[in-house]
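Fold it.
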Amino acid sequence: MKTELLYGIHPVEEALAAGRRIFREVFVVADRPSKRLSIMASVAASKNIPVRRVTMTQLNRIVGDIAHQGTAARVGPYPLVDLTAVLAQESASDPSRFLVLLDTIVDPQNLGAIIRTALGVGVEGVVIPRDRAAGPTPAVSKASAGALEHVRLVQVTNLSATIRTLQDHGWWVYGMDRSAELPVFEVDLTGSVAMVIGGEEKGIRPLVKQSCDLLLSIPQRGPVGSLNASVAAAVALYAASRQRSGRAKPVTAAQHRRATTSSHQKGRVQ
């Protein structure tokens, strides 16, 4: 079986917690002991995973010149999910679904950051193209602080066709585009929604853009023309998450203070 090296505390910890990877062995530095690494080694051992205690010099030779934080793990390939498996989980009792589609995000740091945000807002999965895009590498797992190990990642050959499939299943697909006139904050983002985030240089490709139901923008006032892809994704995803949580109506500081004061007074009376 083909293997790869996860490196860094968060990726190894989260891969152990998620239980989705096949572990061959875990490396932990012995000459710079820490409580966190000791706990990680214990967790691995409890799962019958071989733990190799090595020196920092040895781990540097194994992993290479990267920030491994004193640990690494030899694991099987990342467990990709098929789109049909995601769609198969739809049900009448849970009509509100949330996906993120990434169009040619090539920077592993951006992909990792977006996946971390996506997991934080509770998306069902992240869809990426098979070609001309960053994939689920150890570098992406490190950039995501291990979030990659939990998220359901789908690789597709044709993003436009995937959008049409989602639409056929009742999803609304919104593309983030800086030239769009409609702000993301003014659209109903509840229900079964897929948000498309474009690549770092050119944004969403024309054919993918044409496939979207609606294009949305993030209002900006400064002289810089656009946001970094991962920042734009975070703004858009949390705008949707705020609506979907049912807390879209803002509360003023005065209202919050009154509610807090009232709650404290009730506590004293009791």
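The domain at 4-75 is CATH 3.30.1330.30 (60s Ribosomal Protein L30; Chain: A;).
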